[in-house]
Specification:
With 121 residues, this protein is mainly beta. It has strands at 12-19, 22-29, 34-35, 45-46, 51-52, 62-63, 68-69, 79-80, 85-87, 98-100. It starts with 11 loop residues before the first strand and ends in a 21-residue tail after the last strand.
């Protein structure tokens, strides 16, 4: 019997699998919204706020691009800043990081808490 054990690769985790013959461990890919950078992991990590992962089996989370934000962990996409606004940098974590585009000012609530709080003129 040539049984070979090896660690699951980055982007996956070790999961117990059971059948009529007993149990063993299998490598399962990390789902979107998660990542695992280490080999031999027992779980995938949720992508932190300000990031996302839209693919299966990833070893890293992607930062939200300029013009978007993500205020929750474990997401597969970022939220767009309201129309006429943008974020200053990458990995924005809250709508309050969205501001009016160059040449306009916010006549709404400051800091904005909801999309309707931003009115750029």
């Amino acid at each position: 019997n040539d049984l070979e054990c090896r660690a699951c690769e980055a982007g996956s985790y070790s999961l117990r699998s059971r059948d009529k013959n007993g149990s063993t461990f299998i490598c399962e890919t990390c789902p979107p919204g998660t990542a695992q950078e280490l080999a031999g992991a027992l779980s995938c990590d949720l992508c932190p706020k300000g990031s996302f992962q839209d693919l299966y089996g990833s070893s890293f989370c992607k930062r939200c691009s300029i013009g978007s934000y993500q205020d929750a962990k474990g997401q597969s996409a970022c939220k767009d800043c309201p129309s006429g606004t943008t974020s200053v940098g990458l990995a924005s974590q809250h709508i309050s990081e969205c501001g009016c585009n160059e040449g306009t000012i916010n006549m709404g609530r400051h800091p904005p808490l909801l999309k309707d709080d931003i009115r750029c003129v």
